[in-house]
């Protein structure tokens, strides 16, 4: 990780929270240590650099960073809130903060924003608004945004006889998969050297899958199936943010998932047993087990750092709507309502949302796209300097093909229901019609 402004059916999403670098805070009564949690190990060094710069400007504050993996992060955070040991500040997610806000576990920032005259216009248009909950209060300042694209192994593409320019114009449909499925089939190779589009291909003994898989996607599917479903005309709910009904039983969603899981049945994509074997998507791709993957922009540098693999980016395929699609997701920093040092926590959150962190430090690392407009431009240049053309990610913002990640109440319960259902569908223990009951269960959460 681990993916806004909704306009005319498209959502442009960015996160941020603060203006130009502020003057050092007035000295506290004594030194204060601010506990800060995040989940992305790739981003930890850049935020440690921000913490060092923050301490230099504010010697009375020291930031202690703790990193957990995605699943452990949220489980540990939940336990910490129950036990009263939550960190002062932690990286929040659009799908998670509504529940935390409703439970009073995170601190509204409105008074701080007003008092310090934080300039929210420096962020990508509409991004800061996403962190205003149903109660009308603001709970975060945007830190970055992300979209989805295809990452492929250039050597395997060449061996398959596919030209890079073909990858830029692929299309898909739920009937036969379109040119996108043809490429996936061509890139798939069994252990006897037969390709997925050749007679004699053995789908039970595959050496390289044309398309990798990270999981079933539960009810979110950011890097798994969201780009296909949305380019097929589907939306998560009746509105976003704050939907009151979800559309997991929609025929457009069902046919999308039926097509997508058919890639597993055909041997073009790994089974759930392989996916859950303990070898992650990035490592499998690095080992040549996957010819291409659909990934979030936050993981780009990690793929480029894989030894012995040369990669390139391609946009998500054009769908039946005639457009591409990508979720537009992003992060912000939240302050625990139980923090013993809320003023110190705010000082850190404000710094994280400032050009001093996002533009002067984060952008130069070419890991994520910072939320501040000027920092985003610098990040694009940093990626380019590293030999990575990120156009397949940024084109969604430029062309208006982004869709807002779902911001909803009851997301933990929605995830539990949809994880069980989607895992069963992807494992062929249930068919797509099981989505009817799952959707009814989800909508029952909203009365």
UniProtKB/TrEMBL annotation:
Q: Which residues form the signal peptide?
A: 1-20
Write down any Gene Ontology CC term.
cell envelope
Keyword Nucleus carried by entry:
no
The record's annotation in SUPFAM superfamilies points to: Periplasmic binding protein-like II
What name goes with this protein? ABC transporter substrate-binding protein
InterPro entries in UniProt: Bact_solute-bd_prot1, SBP
Family of the protein in this entry? Belongs to the bacterial solute-binding protein 1 family.
Q: Which PANTHER family match?
A: ARABINOSE-BINDING PROTEIN-RELATED, SN-GLYCEROL-3-PHOSPHATE-BINDING PERIPLASMIC PROTEIN UGPB
Q: Which CDD domains match?
A: PBP2_TMBP_like
Q: Where in the cell is it found?
A: Cell envelope
Q: Which UniProt keywords apply?
A: Signal, Transport
Query: Do you know which PROSITE patterns this protein is assigned to?
Result: PROKAR_LIPOPROTEIN
